[in-house]
Amino acid sequence: MFAYLIRRLGTTVPVLVVVSLIVFSIIHLTPGDPVAIMLREEADPAAAAALRKSLGLDRPLPIQYLTWVGRAARGELGRSIRTNQPVAEAILERLPVTLSLAGASTLLALAVALPAGILSAVRRNSVADVAGTLAALSGISLPNFWLATLLIFLFSVKLGWLPPLGYVSPAKDLWAGLRSLILPAITLGAAMAAVIMRMTRSSLLEVLQLDFIRTARAKGVLERLIILRHALRNALIPVVTVVGLQAGALLGGAIITETIFALPGVGRLLVDAIFQRDFPIVQGVVLLLAVNFLLVNLVVDIVYACLDPRIRYG
Amino acid sequence: MAIEAGRRSFPLPVAASARPRTPLVLTRLLRGHLAKVGAGVILALILAAMFAPRLAPYDPTEQRLEDMVRPPGQVHLLGTDDLGRDILSRLLYGARVSLVVGVLSVGISLLIGVSLGLVGGYRGGWLDEVIMRLMDGLLAFPALVLALAITAALGPSLSNAMIAIGIVGIPGFARLVRGQVLSIRAQEFVEAARAAGLGDRRIILRHIAPNVLAPIIVHASLRIAFAVLAEASLSFLGLGAQPPTPSWGSMLNAGREYLEMAPWLCIAPGAAIFITTLSFNFLGDGLRDALDPRLKF
Q1: What is the DSSP string of A121-165?
Q2: For an interface test with B, which of A145, A157, A165, A278 has the most B Cβ atoms less than 10 Å from its Cβ?
Q3: Looking at residue B15, what is its pLDDT?
Q4: Dihedral of alpha carbons A281, A287, A293, A296, sign
Q5: Is the N or C terminus of chain A more exposed, i.e. has fewer CB atoms within 10 Å?
């Protein structure tokens, strides 16, 4: 296991280097002078020179990269050019909102997708299975901004049950906080639920055809026990991978959800920064989201190796 | 000379059996009901986009302030927006935007991704290592985050959104093709081509590339679904199509302000995005089933 861990960590390092190069390049991909773009019309030569110096853009490119990556490794991501707030501080302020949204979406997706996937596999080709498969395909194809709009129209505008916008911290007011998270969590969790449901169904179907299940049936074990104790244990291994990957991608999906529901999270910080051409914030958030995605992948692979020894020796 | 003679005497078995046979694939594809529905809707969409100038009852950008926010009716089948523009006409022209961005961005991904995958998989060594680490780096970003980052750098516009979506799709094609090439390059017909003295370029283009076509077709059809959704998402955020270009994503975003009094402004473009994406997913799933070698007779 230790050797596998070292090997897996070894493959992550070059990817991290490429990720840092891509994020660093964002500011240099801009057509024209990035400082002029960031300062827009209020650019006077002195301010432009000061910003260029503070961002290190007056130095050779390799030095710029090494300085930037060295600071980023220490958590220093620069300062917002609009508010002068340290980027790391701005991200940390908003991270709890995004994490609570991602957590609620994951829980909701698991609560719906696992039973639906199991039911679909156990009752293969039944009405429930076809309906479940259609619902899953729809969930994948449904634009989350449209789903959000429909949910707001139904539950906020028509029924008045839930707030259409805004965020209340569950730490301050649990009930109001949960109410403010319900619609965003459904919006963000729908696609995830669809993917988990499909994976649970196909994985369980595959396991149910294996010899040890036939043996269990021949021994007269109750069908319910066969599914819950024997089949599901094995079928859930690939599901763990999908849940992990989806959880990593959730922070990306949170960008649109937070924008629609006016949640002050990291995703909204990114969108606002893009419109304000605040490149240090854009770089900081994109780096965070990519590193998070990488780390989640790493954890998923390690968990997978713990669950399935064949991976370690593969 | 000997090689030339060899080429003439022993026509290489270009693994024709491994290529998808079009009529068989088509028959299998049309056997699936969902794939049929998907293909039908996509065909209708292509025709609607092509003939939008003839089909659209009004100019999609013409503002008629006396017709502001009209509900669906006989004069305007799907109603009008906040500037009095006909929703149906804008939807028809919006189909052009979605399909063009979908196809072109997947074209970018396909061209670059397939080339990288073919070269990396066939040549191996340090070149393959460099290409794959680069692809791993691109895959480390959630798709929409990378598209947003590229659009942020290049500036908000439809063509930049298309480039961004195209770049996001490159690693998927590259990894898919590389994996296929790795298994194909060890097969006998490639060995035979090499022994016959064919150059690397010819082996890749004539003997390997046709054999990786089936998974590429499936992946491309599913990627178009993603590209349509991604373009709509970027336009929804204001980073894709810019006014007055009719785009389904920007139409939906503009309609949200009038959700309470005019929900049709959001329902029509959202449904268009949903149906298009779903149709490409149906078609992609159907193609996968039809081209899956395990299902061959």
Answers
A1: HHTTTSHHHHHHHHHHHHHHHS-HHHHHHHHIIIIIIIS--S-SS
A2: A145
A3: 47
A4: negative
A5: C
Residue B12 has pLDDT above 50, yes or no: no
Helix (H) or strand (E) holding A21: helix A2-29
For the record, the structure tokens of B23 come out as: 């009529």
Predicted confidence (pLDDT) per residue in B140-159, tens digit: 888 888 998 898 888 889 99
How confident is the model over A203-219, as a mean pLDDT? 89
Q: For A4, phi and psi rounded to 5 degrees?
A: -60, -40
A20-47 per-position pLDDT tens digit: 999 998 888 777 777 777 776 666 777 7
Considering only residues 253 to 272 of chain A, which have any Cβ-Cβ distance to chain B shorter than 8 Å? 253, 255-256, 259-260, 270-271
Residues 6+ apart with CB under 8 A from A174: none
> What is the number of other CB atoms lying within 10 angstroms of the CB of residue A266?
28
Q: Are A156 and A143 in contact (CB under 8 A)?
A: no
Measured between beta carbons, which residues in chain A are less than 8 angstroms from residue B252?
143, 145-146, 149
Predicted ipTM > 0.85: no
Question: Tokens in use for A202?
Answer: 């196909």
Q: Using the predicted structure, report yes or no on whether residue B285 has a pLDDT greater than 90.
A: no
Euclidean distance between CA atoms B297 and B217, whole angstroms: 21
Cα distance between residue A102 and residue A255, in whole Å:
11
pTM, to two decimals: 0.84
Give the pLDDT of residue B23: 66
- Spell out the residues 6+ positions from residue A144 whose beta carbon is closer than 8 angstroms to its own: A187, A188, A190, A191, A253, A256, A257
Do the chains contact at B281 and A274, CB–CB below 8 Å? no
- d(CA B123, CA B121) in angstroms, rounded, equals 6
Contact status of A5 with chain B (Cβ, < 8 Å): no
List the single residue in B154, B237, B278 with the smallest CB-CB distance to A137.
B278
Using the Cα atoms of residue B55, residue B61, residue B62 and residue B66 in order, give the sign of their dihedral. Answer: positive
Residue with tokens 């910080």: A269
Burial of B12 (0-12, 13-18, 19+ CB in 10 A): middle
Chain A positions touching B237 (Cβ under 8 A) are: 255-256, 259, 271
A16: CB partners within 8 A, 6+ apart: A291, A294
